[in-house]
Amino acid sequence: MPWVGHATDDIIDRGARSPASCSRLAKSTSSSSVGDTESPAPIARCIFEVATAAVARKDLPEDLQGLLAAMSDQTLPVASFPYGTQVCEVEVDPEAGEVEIVRYAAVDDVGRAINPLILYGQTHGGIAQGVGQALLENSYYETQSGQFLAASFMHYAMPRATRCRSWRQRSAKYPRRRTDLA
Fold this sequence. Notes:
The protein is about 30% helix and about 15% strand. It has a 3-stranded mixed sheet with strand order 1-2-3, with helices on one face. By secondary structure, the protein is α+β, with helices and mostly antiparallel strands.
């Protein structure tokens, strides 16, 4: 199981061993306690209660006192290569030197999307950053000293909402068998 899973399992296991543990947490198994339950909200409330008790109560065994935290590190035996593609259709006005983005489509392999709204927001922001770099930034230096003259937003244009209209975005949902979190 990936490092996130190991750390989560360690926290749930420690919380389940605590005398302050809720029965819901103690009954759950470490590998399926959060992601596979019908409603993770009761377990989430329970884990916060256990974490609060672990810090506040001094009558707990020493190994169960303190912050409910864990660390894990893992080296995967096989690399994961996500895929994606982006297509941009532009119209160029050669007389005015203007470039207008007509359509933009992006498909990215992101694995399991925990929050699709944030996922699409991050993708949209990444596209806007790429558009800004490709079409609006101009890196130039002072010829005598080599001083970089475009070092702030005062020296080149940022992409505006009019340039970053609705782009078609999709995320691919093809789980990989190489890792437990796909």
